[in-house]
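Intended use. Records like the one below are meant for learning the mapping from a protein sequence to its folded structure. Do not use them to infer anything beyond what is encoded.
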Amino acid sequence: MKYVLVTGGVVSGLGKGVTASSIGVVLKACGLRVTSIKIDPYLNTDAGTMSPFEHGEVFVLDDGGEVDLDLGNYERFLDVTLTRENNITTGKIYQSVLEKERRGDYLGKTVQVVPHITDAIKNWIEAVAVIPVDGKVGPADVCVIELGGTVGDIESMPFIEALRQLSFSVGQDNFCLVHVSLIPVLGVVGEQKTKPTQHSVRELRALGLTAHLLACRSAQPLLESTKEKLSQFCHVPAGNILSIHDVPNIWHVPLLLRKQNAHHSILKQLNLLDLATPPALQDWTRMAETFDNLTESVRIALVGKYIGLSDSYLSVVKALLHACIACSLKPSIDWIAASDLEDGSAELTPEAHAAAWQTLKSAACVLVPGGFGDRGVTGMILAAKYARENNVPFLGICLGMQISVIEFARSVLGLERANSTEFDAQTPNPVVIFMPEGSRTHMGSTMRLGSRRTLFQTPDCITSKLYHNSEYVDERHRHRYEVNPEVIEILEEGGLKFVGKDESKKRMEILELPSHSFYVGVQFHPEFKSRPGRPSALFLGLILAATGQLEAYLDRRQNGS
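Structure written out for the chain above:
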């Protein structure tokens, strides 16, 4: 197995995940099979209990793993299906070592960070690296490992030491280190400063790791003089110093790497030049340039709880992008904080309230994504009501679907106190309830998680047609609450149709409003399986409906064209 390690220096948030994904894309384009691992040095076992405001979205895998959003980047860029084991955390490592200690596996030895924790990290990496993730048999050729955080952080020290040992044990022909660093420009001087990167590389070398390539983040392309200075003081050949400057969209990053022959440097270090072919990135180039040249846009109102950080809905944003590009459109996302739509906001922050409603009414479609807790729920209900009453295309995901059920029960069925037991445990009309198998005492990994099958109840529904008339669809889930099976009959009598159910037929998965142009709610998260060039069916349906193209598209699909 060949390893490419991507580390970061100077500051966090430089785009190590995109850089690691892009390296994978270029290597895959050279005819190699690629897998990836993300190391997160935090003590949490997984990302499942972390706030979206603090850490961005929780990405869900087929096997139910709740992982860092960078694994979403890997899946989208490399078109692979990863497992929960591809995300290593300090919490997982310590948990596995302590379980062994309790079983007596260490035979009375004193359990220490070195060698027991470091050995556990190495063993985990080597075991996961050989798991095929591309649907083929046998291990990949290259494993791209991203180490989260910044070199020098206390919490990442055991991982740095384990990776140092790994680089030594596998040999220099099997290990390549790409260090991502920042080249700042001071406003007054206007000079590209190399000192922060010099110090970062020195720190890395002091810990026993040597960078083979430098990926330098900057606003503008690196000057030759900057490259020469970095080469001299960081002991990296000038040809291995990559300029990863700001680009119109992140799909340009693999093209940047290819243009600077990054693949050649990596393949040479890994002794893979004879095995690899020239990188075939024609489709990738076409995709990046197509996006750059789009002029028409569509306005999408995204009504959510975590609007303060766009990474909270990263997969939703990417799924909208994939769907819009398939329709030759640029997405124009209007972020609306759900609480700003509420009546209370009209008194406390009248300007924000008026702006939120103006934005909602100007949008071509409305999307209500997932979330937890009661903050902003009333605003989401108002958004769903507006979309339903004004025939505006609407997609509700997870919580968004539950919101549409609550709104319908209140406005159409006249059940004024209809609610979810998540928001009102004493509601006399619980239309959304806690799932029987859920845990009320433990939060982590206790939801209904991962890929589950949804069976279409009728082929004559929009969703089934968008999924190419399938009898079923497998999508990823992450929820604790579900539509109450006892109220399905009265909801359907009122006009709401549940066209997708789980295999037991007791759990509602997809709802539609037949009298509406496009009013769809899904319990699952279709955004997690959307890919560039292969958009999610439901996001595509939303954009087609927003632009008046849905009916013609479905007719073409039905006629086989």
